[in-house]
Specification:
It is built from 16 helices and 13 strands. It is of the alpha/beta class. The protein has a domain at about 90-120 and about 225-415: Rossmann fold, CATH 3.40.50. Bound molecules: pyridoxal-5'-phosphate (PLP) and zinc ion.
Length: about 450
């Protein structure tokens, strides 16, 4: 292989390789997922992670300003000049003493990685910059995704800003938060609403992309996951290149957890980190496929030879019993996570654990994040709720250093927030009560007063 980067099947019994310029959804030989791999020994890499700081002074160059492409040396699948950027990855790792007590942690030990600051308001932009970059190199004119909302918002904004390709998005009916849908519509994406849920949309978009030669940007796309590695690079950067003890992330299609695992596998192999953080992946109870497979069925990566029969049997049972994912955390409302196998690998390498949290726990945790001024959508708050659970169980120590990834912005799903804090009982019942949320312990209720100056002054005294 003379290429400096290539695609490789993750199944060790196949391990087929393919050129970078091929557009594949999975291995044509065996059907497993693909990785992007590099000939590291032939690439110029900084000897230490702190060497990346030399790029800080080059912020007038959009590629060095980008929180994704300033780490290009660690995802060099096309030359830097060809990489697509709209200013993604200007995110923040915030010490979160305001929620540390809620999580049961000691001050100074809990951090929130706020990915809501991305151009489209979610971490998806990290991956989209890389996927669109690859799409451009293969000459794609149209790009498509199935989406619970944020992937489509991200694709739509990249398409609108760069004009490189027209965006086509597939969404399930009634399954998308309005903040996200409004973005896709406003940015001009061709929006196909199908009668079904995310998994149905996912299956359809794969068929349609194949038939029409449309470039697919879901997280099954290995190039997208390369971009998402940089979330971890920025976490390390903010911690002055010291690994935390734990990374806690919500799990939906498991692209993030998979890509974090790959980032740590590579950094460790390259000698750029010594300590590998542990990974905690948090499902919603109503969409807890990973939790059940890993913690109850004991499915493990097993060197790539995971128990396929058990997984397929699990999915077959799910289908025959008509079990469908259902959670207010719509971004993680997924039945069959497409990156399951890569995620098993990440759990194996990072000594990961999986937990699930209830709708009530998610909403309460979300209000705690909001009260600290960061604000996130329900799915993101699963990371804090999961941390609280793991501290309670004694799995995470109160004094360990923990980074929760806040995956999406607060404004993505205003209904959930207003239902929680507001006084409209009917709205609460419709949005949250119907899902088993019974209380809003941390609600910041608006105060209703007659339009009368005396009465207004009365409540403000
Ligand atoms: C996509 C998304 C997730 C799920 O991430 P996966 O990589 O699919 O596991 C979680 N939170 C938000 C806000 C998202 O947009
Ligand atoms: Zn294969």
């Amino acid at each position: 292989m003379s290429e400096l980067s290539y695609q490789k099947c993750i199944n060790p019994d196949c391990a087929a390789t393919f050129g970078i310029s091929e557009t594949l959804h999975c291995c044509p030989t065996c059907g497993a997922l693909l990785d992007v791999e590099y000939e590291w020994s032939r690439l110029a890499l900084p000897p230490r992670l702190s060497d990346f700081e030399k790029y800080w002074s080059q912020r007038s160059n959009p590629h060095r300003f980008s929180g994704v492409w300033r780490f290009h040396d660690l995802l060099p699948f096309v030359p830097l000049e060809q990489c697509v950027t709209i200013g993604e990855g200007q995110t923040l790792l915030q010490k979160a003493d305001f929620v540390a007590p809620y999580a049961g942690m000691n001050n100074g030990r809990l951090f929130l990685q706020y990915e809501g600051l991305n151009p489209s308001g979610s971490f998806k932009d990290n991956g989209m910059s890389a996927a669109v970059t690859h799409g451009r190199t293969v000459g794609a004119k149209r790009a498509a995704c199935a989406s619970t909302g944020n992937t489509s918002a991200s694709l739509a904004i990249y398409s609108a800003v760069t004009k490189l390709m027209q965006s086509v998005i597939f969404i399930g009916s009634g399954k998308i938060a309005y903040g996200k849908l409004s973005q896709a519509l406003d940015y001009g994406a061709k929006t196909i609403q199908i009668d079904g849920d995310f998994d149905d949309a996912m299956a359809r978009v794969q068929e349609v992309s194949k038939q029409l030669g449309i470039y697919l940007v879901n997280s099954i796309n290995p190039f997208r996951l390369e971009g998402q590695k940089t979330i971890m690079f920025r976490v390390l950067e903010a911690l002055r290149w010291e690994s935390p003890d734990w990374i806690v992330v919500p799990g939906g299609n498991l692209g993030n957890s998979s890509s974090f695992g790959k980032a740590f596998i590579e950094l460790h192999k390259l000698g750029l980190i010594k300590k590998v953080p542990r990974l905690a992946i948090i499902n919603a109870t109503g969409a807890n496929t990973l939790y059940r497979l890993v913690e109850q069925e004991n499915v493990t990566w097993n060197g790539g030879r995971y128990d396929k029969q058990r997984v397929n049997g699990f999915f077959a049972k799910m289908d025959s019993e008509g079990q469908r994912a259902s959670t207010i955390a719509s971004a993680i409302e997924i039945n069959k996570p497409v990156n399951l196998t890569k995620c098993l690998r990440a759990i194996d390498f990072c000594k990961g654990v999986v937990r699930d949290v209830t709708e009530q726990e998610i909403l309460d945790a979300k209000s705690q994040v909001g009260a600290g001024g960061l604000g996130c959508e329900p799915a993101s708050a699963a990371s804090l709720a999961g941390t609280r659970k793991l501290v309670n169980e004694g799995v995470i120590g109160r004094d360990e250093r923990v980074v929760c990834v806040l995956t999406g912005h607060q404004l993505k799903d205003p209904n959930a927030t207003v239902a929680y804090h507001g006084q409209d009982k009917e709205f609460f019942q419709k949005v949250l009560g119907s899902r088993g949320v019974t209380t809003a312990e941390f609600a910041n209720r608006p105060i209703t007063v007659p339009n009368d100056i005396e009465k207004i002054i009365e409540v403000l005294k």
